Amino acid sequence: MTRTPSPPTALAVALVALAASGCLDPLVGDEVGASGLILPAGTPVESAHDDPAIERQIDQSDGVDDVVARVHGFAGGAPIAYWDFGPAPTAAVPLFVLVREGEGGELEPIDHPSIIGAIPGDAGYSPFWSVLTVEVTGAYAGELLTSFAAVQEAERVGLVEAPVLSGQAIHCPVVASDVTVEVGDDGEALAASSRFFWEGLTVDCFDFGSMPVEAGSRAPDDRRYQIRRDGSEPLSEVVRGIDLTGDGDLDDSNDVFSRGAADGEYSPLCRTVAVAVADDTAAIDTFADQTMSAIRAATDLFDPEAIEGIVVAVEITDDLRDCPQQREPGGL
Questions:
Q1: Beta strand extents in 199-294 (DSSP E only)
Q2: Which of 17, 47, 166, 214 could form a disulfide with 131, with the two C-beta atoms 3.0–4.6 Å apart?
Q3: Phi and psi based region of residue 161 (left: phi greater than 0; alpha: psi -120 to 50; beta: remaining)
């Protein structure tokens, strides 16, 4: 059965405001589960991907092909690999995480999927999620809260406390069920192994971990310097469609990121900056090696201004893309 989601943009904005004020309006009568929004512990939850209309919406809007290819580049003077999940907004939108107080007094997530209010194709969707913690009370007995509306009802009937904006964010793009991410040179790929609750259903996502957030709702952007020699196309096999390094693949580039994934301020949201360098600059094509280039870090281009004799021209573009870097070999 096709389910029509509630409008996520207005709801997302309202939830952030309500979380800050510490209250959410009542939705239903007094009895727990009377509306059917709160499900008993252990209730099977259907996958949104089994609904052809919803799966088609996600597939057409998730920004990726069936296999998300790994691309080689550089950051901080070292070779890295990254993926391009397509154009992305600067918004970090709300996500609810159920928590309870642990033995040490710190709030810890419980075994319950996080809850989101929008999927690809919905107005207001973003792969960047601003975390609101929802502390369960002593009355909570494993019930499933599978939508924003269920969280509202659970607060009203005393199963959870009011959501609190945590100041933290995570990067988890929602994708179609057949999408895999390439993680090795041998073509090894991983399917999405994480799940969110959305509108009473589950959706698949790739969990790329934590990321910075500004003012609770904005994803900061790092820079992806797309290197080209003056007057030529970018030094990227992905863009040119030719094997620049002679290694038999088409996934090498001389793209340079302003930060690497190990940097605590690293953001997967990248703004493309086109940089033309001098014609005699040695790069991956002249070295015939995807790991070697005279330009391997932002400091090879700027100090802090453009380095004379190396940088010929710079264009800061409006192209914002979701480009997570690989954090561990064979994984995400």
A1: 201-205, 210-211, 222-229, 252-257, 269-277
A2: 166
A3: beta
Cα dihedral 113/203/5/17 (nearest 10) = 40
d(CA 288, CA 249): 12
How far, CA to CA in Å, does 19 sit from each of 24, 27, 83, 114, 143? 7, 16, 34, 16, 21
Cβ contacts of 73 within 8 Å, gap of 6 or more: 79, 80, 81, 82, 224, 253, 254, 255, 256, 257
Other C-beta atoms closer than 10 Å to the C-beta of 331 total: 11
Residues found in the chain: 332
- Terminal Cα-to-Cα distance of the chain (whole angstroms): 34
pLDDT in tens, the chain (332 residues): 444 443 333 344 434 434 443 434 443 345 655 678 999 999 999 999 999 999 999 999 999 999 999 999 999 999 999 999 999 999 999 999 999 998 888 999 999 999 999 999 999 999 999 999 999 999 999 999 999 999 999 999 999 999 999 999 999 999 999 999 999 988 899 999 999 999 999 999 999 999 999 999 999 999 999 999 988 999 999 999 999 999 999 999 999 999 999 999 999 999 999 999 999 999 999 999 999 999 999 999 999 999 999 999 999 999 999 999 999 999 99
Residues 58 and 203: beta-carbon distance below 8 Å: yes
Residues 81, 70: contact at Cβ < 8 Å?
Answer: yes
Output 103-111 pairs: Cβ under 8 A, ≥24 positions apart: 107/133, 107/135, 110/136
For residue 155, give the amino acid letter. E
Q: In the chain, where does DSSP find H-type helix?
A: 8-21, 52-61, 148-156, 237-240, 284-287
Q: CA 305 from chain center: how many Å?
A: 31
Contacts of 64 (CB under 8 A, 6+ apart): 85, 86, 175, 179
